[in-house]
Amino acid sequence: MKHLLNYLLFVLLAMSFASCQKDNIVLIDPIDTDDSEDLIANTVFTQTVGVAFSSDGNAAVTGTNDDFTVTVNGNDVTIIYAGEEYVMYELSGTANDGFFKLYSAKKQGITLNGVSITNPNGAAINVQGTQSEPNKGKRTFIILKGENTLADGANYIDTPATEDEKAAMFGEGQFIFSGEGSLNVAAMGKSGIVSDDYVHFISGTITVNVSSSATVNGSDTLKPACVKGKDYVRMTGGALSLTSTGTGGKGISSDGNGYFYGGTVNVTVTGNNFGSNGGGGGGHGGWGNNSSDGISAKGLKFDGNLIFKGSKVVVNCTAHEGIEAKGTLSVSGGEVYSHSQSDDAINSGGNLTISGGLVCAYSQGNDGLDANGNCYIKGGVVYAISASSPEVAIDANSEGGYKLYLTGGTLVAIGGLESGSSLTQSCYSASSWSQNTWYGLTVGSTTYAFKTPSSGGTPLVVSGGSTPVLQSGVNVGSGTECFEGMFYTNAAVSGGNSVSLSSYSGGNGGGGGPGGGGHGPF
C-alpha cells in the first residue's frame, strides 16, 4: 500500500510539473525506501528445516511436521509448506543433478551453508507461491554462510506450464541477500538471479556468470541478465561481480527502479546485441532496438529511474550503453564508472542530475553522458569522455528544447559540451591535448589527476568552483584512485607543463593531438 500511495503521489506531481519539465525542476523520489522489513533481525523464525544434499544422489530432509509435504527423488527436493509459521530452510551438501523447490504462502528464509547445487534441467533454487497461486510469492531471506555454488543447465525441460522458472536462482517473491559468506551462480540456460518482485542486496559476496544468449520464439522471449528484479533492484551493501558473455545479455535489469546506496558492483558485458535492430542508435538516447527481435547487450538497464547515493559501481560494456535509465537518473554520492565501446556510457530517458559523488562516463562510440531531458551538474566530480566525433562528452536533448545546466562541481570533459548549454559556472578549454597522458587539475586548494584516453574528440574542457589550473605530463605521487585508475582525487603531482586555457561556452570544435608523457602510480 505504501508503494501504491507513493506512486500515485509521484504521478500527481509529475502531471503538475509536466509543463515545466524544461526548467530546473527535479521531482522527489516517489518510492518508499524504508527497508526495515528487509532486515532479517526483524523476523522471528520459529522452525528450521534442514536439506542435506549428497554427492551419492540421495538428499535428506529433517525438521518437518504435518504442515510440510516433502518429495525427494535423489537430489531433487520439493517442499510444500501449508503452515502459518516463518520457516528457515538450511541447505548444505552437494548435488550434481538436483534442485531445491519450495511452495509457500508465507515469508521464509533460506540459509545457503556451503551448498553446491547443479540442475541440468532448470533452476537450482526455485521459490514459488502456493501450487494454486504460484506467482504470488512472499519475501525470502537468503543468508550466505561459507562458499556456495548454484548452476543451471542449457535447457529448462521440467518447468510446469503454469509456472515461471527464469533463472538458476528464481523466486516469485522478493529476494533479500545477507550474510558473510559467498555465492557463485553460473547460468547457461537463462538468467542468473531473478525475482518477479524485487531484489535487495544487504551483505555477502555474490558472483554471477551468465553465458546464455537472447532468443525470440513467438511470445516467449529470453532476455538473460545476471540479476533481474521485476519491481526494482536495491543495493545497500555487499559485493556483486557480474559477467554476461551471451548475445543480448545484461548485467542488471529491471522493469522498475534501481537504488544503489552502498556496497560494490562490478559489471562486465561482452556479448553482442541480438536481432536485426539490436544495435546502438546514434543521436539522443541511442535506443536503437525498437524492433521486436532487437535485444541490446547493456550493463545496467532500468525501465524506471536510477538513483546512486553511495555504492561503488563499475560497468564495462562492449556493444551498447553501459548504464541506462528509461526514466530519470541521479547521482548524489558514491562512485560510478561506466565505459562503453560502442554507445553512450551513461544514458537517461529523462533528466540526468549529478549533485555529488564521483562519476566517470567514458564512451568510445557515442556520448559520455547523454540525457534525453535536461542534464544538471550541480556538484561532485565528473570525468566525461567521448571518443567519437561529432558526439560530445556531455549531451542534452537540445532538439527537444532541453539543455545542459552546469552550476557546480568539478568537471573534466574530453569531447566538449552540448552547444547552447547554460554554464553558470565558468568553463575553460585547452585547444589541444595529448593522448595517454597524466594531467594535473588544481581547483582552489584541491588537486586532481586524470589520464587521457588513447583517442577522443576535442576540446578538453575543465571547470570548478574557482578558476582551474591545468598541467600536462605530470607525475602522480599519491592520491585516492578512482575510475579504474584513470583519475585521482586529493592528488600530489609534480613536473609537467602549464596548459593555456581559454573561456569556453559549448560545442566540440578545436584540435586534439597524440603525443604522451607523465605517469601515475599504476
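That was protein one. Protein two is written in the same sequence-then-structure order:
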Amino acid sequence: MKIPAMIAAELRRLTSTKMGVLALIALVAVPILYGGLYLWANQDPYGKFSEVPVALVDDDQGSGEVNYGDKIADELLEGKAFAWHRMTATEAADALHRGEVDFSVTIPKDFSDALTSVSSGDPRQARIELETNDANNYLASTIGDQAVEKIRSSVAQLVGREAAGRMLTALSDIRGDLLTAADGAGRINDGAQAASDGAGTLRDGASQLATGAKKLSAGAHQVADGAAQLARGAKKVADGAHQVAAGTSEIAGYADEAGRAVQAVTDALPGARRDIAQAMRDQGLAQDQIDEVLTALDPVADKLRTGDAKVHDAVGRIDRLAAGAAQVASGADQLATGATRVSSGAAQVADGTDAAVSGAVQLRGGAASLQQGLGTLHDGVTQLRDGLADGAAQIPASTKDLRAAQAKTIADPVQTASGKVAAAEDYGAGLAPFFAALAGWIGIYALFLIVKPVSKRAVTALRKPVRVTMAGWLTPALLGGVQMVGLFGVLALALGFGFANPWGTLGVMVAASFTYAAIILALNVWLGSVGQFLGLVLMVLQLVVAGGTFPWQTLPAPLAALHHVLPMGFVVDAMRQLMYGGDLGRAGSDLLVLAGWLVAALALAALGVTRMTHRRTLRDLQPSLIG
C-alpha cells in the first residue's frame, strides 16, 4: 500500500459518516475560529479607548486669575482620549465602586496654588489623583497610570511654557534696560571727559592764580615796609613838635620871627598833605587807608592855622603861642599813632596775601587731584558702558513670537523621533504571529483527537515503518495546512492585516503546522494517550515561553532557556520577520530550526513504528483513552 492510499483510507474513515464529516470540519475550523476571533477582538483596542468610561473630578479653586484645573479639564474633554464624565468626588467614587467607570481622575482644590507656589516661599508639587478598581478591570489600572502620566507631562509643559515665557519676557526687558543704562553710561562718560578737561583748565588757572598771588604778596610786603618807615617818620615829627613846643618859650621874644615861621609852616601844609598822599599811593596803600592817614593829619593843619592866627593876633601873647606849640606836639603824636596803624594794616594785608598764595597753591593741587579723579571716573564709566553693552549683546533680541517658540522649546526640550525597522500595523497585527502559531498547535492537537496516529493494520500488513510514519504524519499535516490557509485568509481578508511577504508568511504557518503534526505524532506513537496529554502540556509550556506578548528576556531563567529550544518561539519570530518586513535571514534560521524539529520528530516516530512492527506490548493492545 502506497502512502497516498493510506492517507486516502484514513480520510475515508474520517468522512464515512455525516457526524464524522461534521467533526472533521469542526476540528479543522478550531484554529481558524480561535485565531480569527481572538485577533478580531483585539485588533485595535487602543483605538477604542475613547469608549472607555472615566470619571473626571475638577475641584481646583484656582489661584488668583489662573485656574489650571479648568484648562486641563477642558482639554481632556475636547481631546476625547477617553469617554470622560465630569462628576463630583462622591459621584466618581460611587461610579467606580459600581463599575460604571473604569477609573477616576481628580484635580484637587489646591492644584493651581501648588503649580504657582514655585515663586512663593513654600514651593510644592501639584497632585493629580488616580483611583482605580481592579475588580472592574486590572488593565484599566495600567491604562489609568499611563493616562495620568500623559496629563502630568502636558501640565508640566503648560506650566513650564508659561514660566519660560515670563522669564524670557523679563530677559527682554532686562536687555532693554541694559541698553538704556549703556546709553546713560555713555553720556556720563562724555560728561566725565568734559569735567576732566575742565579740571585741567581749572588746574592751569589755579597755577596762574598762585603765581599772581605770590607777586601780590611781594608787593604787600613792600607796602608794609613803607608804612613802617612812615610810622618812624611820624614819630620823628612828633619828637620835633615836642622840641618846638619846648623852644617856644625861647622864641617868645621873637614873636615876629615865630609868626613868619608859623605862617611858613601853614603855607607848606597843603603841599605836605599832597606829598604824603602821593607817598602812600606810591607805597600801594588803598585809598581808604590814605584817607585815614590824611584825616589824622588834617587836625594838625587846622591847629597850625589857628596858631598862625593867634600869632598874628597877639604876638605878645607868648603863653598862648606856647600852648599852640603844645597842641602841635599833641597833633604830631596823633600823626605818629595813625602812621603806626597804617603800618599794622599794611602788615595784615601782607599776611592776607601770604594766605592767598597758600590757598592758590592748594587750589592748584586740588584741581590736579580732581583732574586725576575725573580721569579715573572716565575710565570706570567707559568700562561700565562697555560692560553693559556686552551684557546686552549676550541677551539676544527677541520678538513675541520668538519668545513663545523659545518658551515652548524650554518647556518641552526633547522631541522623540521614532523609527521602525519593521512595523506592525496595529495591536492585533502585533499579536497575529503569536496567536497564529498557537492556533496551529491547537488545530493539530484537535485533529489528533480523531485522526489515528498510525494505521495498526498497515503496521501489521506492510511492516514498512517509514511509509506508515509518513502516512500517519501527512494526514494531520495536510489537514493542518488547510487550517493555516483558512486562518491566513481570515487574517488577510476578513481582518485586513498587511503582509510584507504574504507567501513567505503562509509558508511559515504551513511549515509550523507540519512540524507540530510530526511532534504530536511522535508523542502519540511512543506514549499513546499519555503522549496526547503531553502534547497539551507542551502547548501550555510554549504558550508561556514563546515570547508572543512580553519579550522573552522578561522570563525567569529556566523558562528563557526553553524559549531557545521549543519550536513555537521560532515560528513566532519567523512570522514577525516575514509579516512586518524584517530580517529574512532570521526567518531562514527559524525555518531551519523547525526543519530540525520536523526531521527529529519524524525520525523518532519512525523508530516507534519500527518497534511496533517487530513486537507488540500490552499497551498496544489496550484501547486508547483518547480517539
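Residues 623-627 have pLDDT under 50 and may be disordered. Keep this in mind for the problem set.
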